[in-house]
Design a protein that fits this description.
Blueprint: H1 2-28, E1 40-44, E2 47-51, H2 53-70
Antiparallel strand pairs: 1-2
Length: 73
């Protein structure tokens, strides 16, 4: 039935949204996240450019490990 599959998809989307929200709440409690050595911040009068290189690499490694554990055959 089409409604059964639509209901499952909506539940999955809701669960994923809750998990992402919990993840961001958890990150807000870590003041060092986003201010690691290797993150670039350029401050000039009137504007700021922030490039979180080390943070992006760390997030990529953690997500790669988690997804490899989940989808391992």
């Amino acid at each position: 039935m089409a409604l059964d599959s639509l209901g499952k998809i909506l539940i999955y989307i809701g669960v994923i949204t809750v998990l992402i929200g919990a993840f961001f709440l958890f990150l807000s409690r870590m003041p060092w996240f986003g201010k690691l050595p290797g993150d670039i911040a350029i401050n000039r009068s009137g504007w700021t450019i922030y490039i979180p290189l080390t943070t992006m690499i760390l997030v990529s490694l953690v997500l790669t490990l988690i997804l490899n554990l989940i989808f391992r055959k």
